[in-house]
């Protein structure tokens, strides 16, 4: 498994992409917004538990937020390849802010019901599904190919810096406002305000310093073309398979950590929020580790995913809150190393004209797979306990990653043999023989 990025070696260093003015401005606004995202994620989980006390309802909430990624991501990728991404991103920040603001107001006034949480979560997820491919592929337009791997990793570091601060801050704020339904509303409302910082950052950019990819125009079959492109690349199929298992059965921390904190260890909102921040220590370290690797490798991604599966199993048997919390940085380190490096490798090795569609398919597999796994993990936790849910998560991820790696080795070897045979036939063909069309195999 040696495939990596392009032959031109990018610069190494943890923060090299911050030398680019537009990216530096964008990263500042995104960091504040990421803190808001984790404020809402923690507060919304606590809100659902306050309203229902059900692990299955919590899993359903996570699923509803992410199911639009499963349905809309392919079309969102086409949109990102057709419309200037900076303009698209400004409008979609508003699309996420409005449902957050409505949910916050409903909770503050004390009239919120669980069906309203479900509806607004679905609307928020739809805007997020449309925004994510544009955001992912816009990174290349800000920094160019030279800094792309580093910028993708720093985006993950920013996201997990927000995760480091957001859950603990949310827990403190919820406790300070009384730990009830109304308390969660103020925290959710803060997230709605945070999207304004991204809009401001996009407005302050210098458009002449961007590297826009060519727009595809209104072409039929654009989604199918993206799918064919991915299917023709065994390395992309492996990456998509790995992130599918990590997303669907591995990254259900909003469900598992909430239930471990409340049911297994009898803790409250503050301790639950602290678990998210403790995990973020490892997640941030994983993102920064990926930022230092200028040439991502498939074997590194597969290895990190297998380490995550093992550590997830270990966390399931931790006897106390303190020992469980001590393992979480390793969980965050391994999973974010795998996911961030996979994202960077996908962006670096993809044709610029296809980048929006490939990014959307990646997000569809990664985020859209969570609705498949979150209700299952929530049901397992409710029926058999949070520990069984964590153990099942680790086992399924480990077996899935191993199967994906074996599939890649088999099909990559067959692809290399086909290319070698074709080169042999070309060398043995007389010069006067007609030339066949090139096979688009990679």
TrEMBL record:
<feature type="transmembrane region" description="Helical">
    <location>
        <begin position="324"/>
        <end position="346"/>
    </location>
</feature>
<feature type="transmembrane region" description="Helical">
    <location>
        <begin position="298"/>
        <end position="318"/>
    </location>
</feature>
<feature type="domain" description="Major facilitator superfamily (MFS) profile">
    <location>
        <begin position="22"/>
        <end position="412"/>
    </location>
</feature>
<dbReference type="Pfam" id="PF05977">
    <property type="entry name" value="MFS_3"/>
</dbReference>
<dbReference type="InterPro" id="IPR020846">
    <property type="entry name" value="MFS_dom"/>
</dbReference>
<feature type="transmembrane region" description="Helical">
    <location>
        <begin position="387"/>
        <end position="409"/>
    </location>
</feature>
<keyword id="KW-0813">Transport</keyword>
<keyword id="KW-0472">Membrane</keyword>
<keyword id="KW-1133">Transmembrane helix</keyword>
<dbReference type="InterPro" id="IPR010290">
    <property type="entry name" value="TM_effector"/>
</dbReference>
<feature type="transmembrane region" description="Helical">
    <location>
        <begin position="272"/>
        <end position="291"/>
    </location>
</feature>
<feature type="transmembrane region" description="Helical">
    <location>
        <begin position="101"/>
        <end position="127"/>
    </location>
</feature>
<feature type="transmembrane region" description="Helical">
    <location>
        <begin position="236"/>
        <end position="260"/>
    </location>
</feature>
<keyword id="KW-0812">Transmembrane</keyword>
<dbReference type="InterPro" id="IPR036259">
    <property type="entry name" value="MFS_trans_sf"/>
</dbReference>
<protein>
    <submittedName>
        <fullName>MFS transporter</fullName>
    </submittedName>
</protein>
<keyword id="KW-1003">Cell membrane</keyword>
<feature type="transmembrane region" description="Helical">
    <location>
        <begin position="358"/>
        <end position="381"/>
    </location>
</feature>
<feature type="transmembrane region" description="Helical">
    <location>
        <begin position="56"/>
        <end position="80"/>
    </location>
</feature>
């Amino acid at each position: 498994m040696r495939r990596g990025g392009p032959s031109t070696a990018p610069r190494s260093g943890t923060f090299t992409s911050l030398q680019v003015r537009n990216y530096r401005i964008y990263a500042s606004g995104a960091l504040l917004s990421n803190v808001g995202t984790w404020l809402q994620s923690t507060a919304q989980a606590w809100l659902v538990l306050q309203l229902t006390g059900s692990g299955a309802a919590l899993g359903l909430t996570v699923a509803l937020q992410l199911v639009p990624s499963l349905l809309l991501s392919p079309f969102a990728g086409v949109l990102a390849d057709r419309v200037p991404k900076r303009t698209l991103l400004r409008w979609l920040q508003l699309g996420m802010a409005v449902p957050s603001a409505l949910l916050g107001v409903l909770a503050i006034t004390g009239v919120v019901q669980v069906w309203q949480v479900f509806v607004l979560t679905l609307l928020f997820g739809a805007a997020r599904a449309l925004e994510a491919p544009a955001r992912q592929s816009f990174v290349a337009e800000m920094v160019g190919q030279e800094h792309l791997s580093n910028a993708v990793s720093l985006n993950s570091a920013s996201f997990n810096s927000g995760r480091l601060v957001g859950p603990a801050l949310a827990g403190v704020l919820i406790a300070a406002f009384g730990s009830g339904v109304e308390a969660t509303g103020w925290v959710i409302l803060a997230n709605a305000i945070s999207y304004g910082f991204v809009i401001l950052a996009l407005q302050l950019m210098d458009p002449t310093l961007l590297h826009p990819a060519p727009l595809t125009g209104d072409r039929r079959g654009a989604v199918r073309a993206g799918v064919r492109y991915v299917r023709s690349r065994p390395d992309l199929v492996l990456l998509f398979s790995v992130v599918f298992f990590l997303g669907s059965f591995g990254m259900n921390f909003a469900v598992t950590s909430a239930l471990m904190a409340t049911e297994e260890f009898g803790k409250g909102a503050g301790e639950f929020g602290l678990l998210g921040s403790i995990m973020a220590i490892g997640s941030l370290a994983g993102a920064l580790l990926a930022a230092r690797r200028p040439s991502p490798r498939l074997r590194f991604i597969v290895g990190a995913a297998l380490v995550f599966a093992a550590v997830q199993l270990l966390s399931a048997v931790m006897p106390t809150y303190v020992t469980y919390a001590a393992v979480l940085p390793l969980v965050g380190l391994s999973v974010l190393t795998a996911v961030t490096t996979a994202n960077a490798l996908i962006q670096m090795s993809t044709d610029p004209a296809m980048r929006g569609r490939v990014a959307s398919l990646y997000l569809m597999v990664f985020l859209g797979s969570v609705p498949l796994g979150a209700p299952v993990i929530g049901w397992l936790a409710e029926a058999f306990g949070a520990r069984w849910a964590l153990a099942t998560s680790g086992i399924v991820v480990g077996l899935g990653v191993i199967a994906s790696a074996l599939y890649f080795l088999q099909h990559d070897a067959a692809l290399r043999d086909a290319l070698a045979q074709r080169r042999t036939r070309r060398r043995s063909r007389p010069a006067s023989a007609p030339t066949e069309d090139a096979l688009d195999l990679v």
